Amino acid sequence: MGGTTFSFGYKSSDVDQGGFFVQASVAGSAPHTFQLDSGSCGMIIGQNYLPSNLNLNDYPCFGPGQMHYLPSNNIRSGTWYFLPISLIDTPSGKTIDSNCMVLVINDPADFGGGMMGVAAQASYPAYNALLNAYVTVDDQKQPLTQSFVLTQQAAIIGADHTDLGFPGFHYVQLVTPTELPLEPAQTNQVPMNWQSSPIWSPPQTTLTLKGSGEAQPASASANFMMDTGINQMLMVAPDSFIPANALESGTGQRQFVPNIGTQIGIELLGLGGAQLLSYTFTVDSPAATTPPETPADVVYLGQSTNAADPYKVNVGIHPLRSHLYMYDYAAGLIGFAPIA
User: Fold this and answer.
1) What sign for the dihedral angle of Cα 290, 292, 298, 302?
2) 204-338, which class in CATH?
3) Predicted confidence (pLDDT) per residue in 50-82, tens digit
């Protein structure tokens, strides 16, 4: 089974350093390079990269917005527009059309690139270019299935859990959050079909943390994210969860001290108790390559501002050293499959 798919090949790919970079055209612009970021939603581009004769008021506008990236703490401010996108496969040059919410910014002096957020988190599909791709047949738009697979070479748009070309996947079923995100308010009258559902919460993973000399690890259920935009692990947890002396001195965002024996474990279980990911690593510098999911380093972001959601873990890009990743938005599934 499975329907039409499109292989969106990366311009460059480096799991250990830079991540995945793709090319796309925004509202008729020249091809532009974007980092494919499964840790954020929405695209960002500097206005100077758009065609000089482009009238942004011809497109749906949703007013001012801001993106805050961690752990870099980079903040980008601009205006949200729902714009046509052309996704360009490398190296074939083949294209497929899409649409996406794009934050158009006006600070080229400190922003020479672009971001393409494709996160599986509580966000509307308008913010994910890989979920809005379509082909045109006899002047009729035919959307691809709202699903994709990430490999180390390409994003396979339209591949879903029924696709026999991607065996070996196990899945975790996503659930609807108790509190839905606010729909952005459109600030002009340009017609737009807004898809407001479904919305999915991140899955839960078991996070374990064991300090040097401790007999047993501490364990907690944490919101899970796989993030192609970073090669680190990010952790949000109560201070009491962190072993003594495991962090650098200071307050706020801090790194875990390497080479003192701190061990961190991740276990992501899915449907039928299937094991999607399971690994434990020691925080060392330089980071070990075994297990392959080991991040470059681990950053503690502090305690959660939401008492009902105290634990979060962003495992970074390194699970894609050993696994393929699928986000089947239409079915509400996240999946991992070992690389053969």
Assistant:
1) negative
2) mainly beta
3) 999 999 999 999 999 999 888 888 888 999 999
- Lookup: tokens for 326: 């699928």
Compute the distance between CA of residue 73 and CA of residue 253 in angstroms, rounded to an integer: 10
Q: How far apart are CA 168 and CA 154, in angstroms?
A: 18
pTM value is 0.94
Q: Which residues pair with 281 in a beta bridge?
A: 264
* DSSP bridge pairs for 268: 277
Dist. CA 75–CA 96, nearest whole Å: 30
Kindly calculate the radius of gyration of the chain based on its CA atoms and give it in whole angstroms.
Answer: 20
Are 128 and 143 spatial neighbours (Cβ–Cβ below 8 Å)? no
* Residues forming CATH 2.40.70.10 domain(s) in the chain: 6-169
Yes or no: say if 318 and 231 are a contact pair by the CB < 8 Å rule. yes
Identify the weakest region by mean pLDDT among 104-118, 185-199, 220-234, 271-285: 104-118
pLDDT digits (tens, 9 = 90+) for 290-312: 999 999 999 999 999 888 889 99
Q: What fold does the segment set 6-169 form as a domain?
A: Cathepsin D, subunit A; domain 1 (2.40.70)
Torsion on CA atoms 268, 271, 272, 277, rounded to nearest 10: -20
Residue written as token pair 């925004």? 26
